[in-house]
Amino acid sequence: MPQITVDYSEPLADSFDRRGLALALHPLLVEETAATLAACKTRFVRTETAVVGGDEDGHAVVHVRIGLLPGRTAEAKARVTDAAVDLVRRHLKPVAGHVVHISAEVCDLDASYRKATDA
């Protein structure tokens, strides 16, 4: 915990500094949510197709989902999502011919969440 998943559209692959985003997002989560840096895990999922409205051409999507253990206030979650959107903007170069739709959410992990680390 935190469990972070970033979905992003294929056309952004060459213009999106994913590693830079993760390395900026992790310390933010430590500061805002009392997570430990070693516990922050981010995975990136490239999506082939994004459809916005009735159009699949000319649009790209980045969505950041941050799963945290319950207990954070709505205000803290809002600060994290606002900052995540800003960080995506900072780590994404413009892509000609595409409108990029950026979103973020913080979700409470279910009580069944478990973690194991194998060496």
* CATH homolog superfamily: Macrophage Migration Inhibitory Factor
Low-confidence stretches: none
Topology order in helix (H) and strand (E) letters: EHEEHE
Average predicted local confidence, pLDDT: 95
What structural category arises from helix and sheet content?
Answer: alpha/beta
**Domains, number:** 1
Q: Biggest β-sheet: count, sense, barrel?
A: 4 strands, mixed
**Radius of gyration over C-alpha positions, nearest whole angstrom:** 15 Å
- The main sheet orders its strands as 2-1-3-4
Q: Which class in CATH terms?
A: Alpha Beta
Distance between the termini: 18 Å
In one word, what is the shape?
Answer: elongated
CATH topology: Macrophage Migration Inhibitory Factor
- According to DSSP, the number of beta strands is 4
Organism: Streptomyces flavofungini
Protein name: Isomerase
GO molecular function: isomerase activity
Pfam families: CHMI
Question: What does it look like?
Answer:
This protein has 119 residues and is an alpha/beta fold. The chain has two helices and four strands. The chain has a four-stranded mixed β-sheet with strand order 2-1-3-4. Helix 1 runs antiparallel to helix 2 (74-90). The longest helix has 17 residues, at 74-90. The chain is elongated and about 40 Å long.
